[in-house]
Amino acid sequence: MEQKQNLSEKEIRKQSWILFISGVVLYCLFNYLPLKIWISNEYIYLTVKILFYIVLSFFLLHFKKKLNLELERPLKEISWCWLLPLLIPACTNFISVEFFDSIQPKEVELGVFFFDIITDFFVSVGEDTIFVDIALGLLLPLLSEKKRGHKNIFSLFIISIFFTAIHCYSFLYSKPDVAAFSLVYVFLLTFECGYLAIYFDSPLIPILVHYLFNALDFVAFESFYEIEKITGKYVLFCSLMILFAVFYTMALAKISTEQELKVLGERKLHEMELKAEEIHQDADKIQEEISSSEDEKREETKAEIQADLEELEKDKEELEKDLASLTKKGE
Is the separation of the CB atoms in 55 and 123 below 8 Å? Predict the structure, then answer.
């Protein structure tokens, strides 16, 4: 705690950028090295992969917390049931099986499938932490003065393009047309997860959405089916489904923002009501003080007048005595 307090804001930003660059370098090294070719056994490769992403995720989350690098999130999250329609685009490939003959079933290795599903969770945690959460945490304050109201959209485009460019390693392991189309998926999914990260009250939501898309549309689908040829109709169908996910997320962001404004308005109104009540209480207190002060003054004046009257009575008695003695002397 003392170390965090002693660090200046400039030093925190510097260390945050070092953390981000370190994460990107480690991520690129692991994915661009041909480990899949070097390690022929699928189980050993997946073990190495899961260990790498567990270590990377722990490294990123630990230093992110230490540097207090958090996104400024809304005051109130919308209900989780609003997120359920996002499960439909996550099943795009499975839905497309019913419409396209170019997708054929294949033999499933259940062991590899389940191992891959578990691995993909840690992949989603690592990728979202560095390329969404930390990246946005660094970009949004940097662009706040330059872009003002458009800083969110501009930041989302930057991280989406950056993460898509890094994913070009998919050309090393996939057919060119499949790899190219997967980059479109990556761009739109990163954009969507960025929206969810900014406009929802939990960093887990973009991670879970990312995981569902990867686990269902890539890992599970590729374990059960094989795309023999990517046709124009297939690309159009998948693009419409993903665009639906993006625009639906933007609509949810709008709802979330309106709720935030509503909460702010309700809070401000409540503060004003409390302030008004305090003013009324102060006014009543002042009135009571004035009334009690006036009563005290009246009592004091009355006491003073009574004392003066008593004094006058005494003076009168003395004068009467003096007159009586003078009369006796005169006689």
Answer: no
Q: Decide: 157 and 165 in contact? Cβ < 8 Å.
A: no
CA atoms within a 13 Å half-sphere pointing along the CA-CB vector of 104? 5
* Structure tokens, 102: 């170019």
The C-alpha torsion from 216 through 235 and 96 to 179, rounded to 10°, is -40
3-state DSSP helix/strand/coil percent for the chain, to nearest 5? Answer: 85, 0, 15
First to last CA, the chain: 105
Q: Which residues of the chain have pLDDT under 50?
A: 1-5
User: What are 32-42's pLDDT values in tens digits?
Assistant: 888 877 888 88
pLDDT score, position 1: 44
H-assigned helices in 67-203: 87-90, 92-96, 110-128, 135-147, 151-166, 176-199
- What are the C-alpha distances in Å from 82 to residues 188, 288, 303, 311? 19, 55, 77, 88
Task: Give the residue from 206, 17, 25, 43 showing the smallest Cα distance to 124.
Answer: 206
3-state secondary structure of 328: helix
Please state the pTM of the whole predicted model: 0.70
Helices 204-212 and 110-128, axial angle in degrees (round to 10): 150
Paired with 229 in beta bridges are none
